[in-house]
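Section: protein folds

Sequence with per-residue tokens
===
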Amino acid sequence: MLEKISLLLTEVNSFKSSDKGEIEQFRIKYLGQNGILKTLFDDFKTLPSEEKKTTGQKLNELKNKAEEKFQELKKLLPDQDGDNSEKFLDLTLPVNKGTVGSRHPVSIVRNEIIEIFSRLGFNVSEGPEMEDDWHNFSALNFPEDHPARDMQDTFFIDNSFSQPAGSDKNKKPARALRTHTSSVQVRVMENQKPPIRTISPGRVFRNEAISARAHCIFHQVEGLYIDENVSFADLKQTLLFFSREMFGEKTEIRLRPSYFPFTEPSAEMDVSCFLCNSKGCNVCKHSGWVEILGCGMVDPAVLENCKIDSKKYTGFAFGMGIERIAMLKFRIDDIRHMFENDVRFLKQFSSAV
């Protein structure tokens, strides 16, 4: 067998041709399915063990030489006018579809919230992310010694921004990155007469330690409704409608007394846990309820600050974190995933659009 392989090696090394047909016949003869090498490898299996090492080396050498010779001669072939197979574009071939992107989970939930409230007649209002003290704190009834004004809670920028007309001219409040989108509501109340029915989605900033449940940058949607004879019952029914549209028609809500400087009375709102059907799980801490937003009746002092007659008009306000709802809706266990732009994470939401 070694003799035969040696003769074939000599034949392969000496083979020369510039004819395409002859080169193809060479390939079939040595490398084809029924070629010489296929037969030799079949015979190789029957050799005694002591002969296999030497014979195997020679057989592999023959195979490599035959493949190299075929590729070498193929490259030397001149281009033929009649052969356009490599240049021909087959328009009947199926299209190689590109990668389809997906929306960010925050965008998905934000758009869904806007769509739900738009059906109740709420429009969308926006404002600057860098705010003065009046719109971010003072107009919303925050006292001067309120902890939210501390540097530990707010990202202050400078103190060169003057207060609006009618405020204390001796004080120059610092500009800061807004800590809530309630500042947009103040701007709406200053520039629009009741009835007012608006939601304010946007990015907010708070000087907090970043963890799996909290971030220094996040998104809120705050709502405001001001008109004559607006009551707490209107607030409750509005939030019940929103909750059932967002989490399912069987969702229930409960309101717990709370405190916010710009609403009185104030409440925290919980929804029945839609992940365990209120039976108790890790997400709801086995209580059957999940807190999603804060709300309340607009404090009369806030209305007066914005030149709205508090004896004629009443209103309610609410605010929720978009990331919190997205984490519940999509069962995301770490808020930091939403800010890392990891494609593997974002691809999971292509079907949610």
In short: Residues 49-76 form the longest helix (28 residues). Residues 161-166 have pLDDT under 50 and may be disordered.
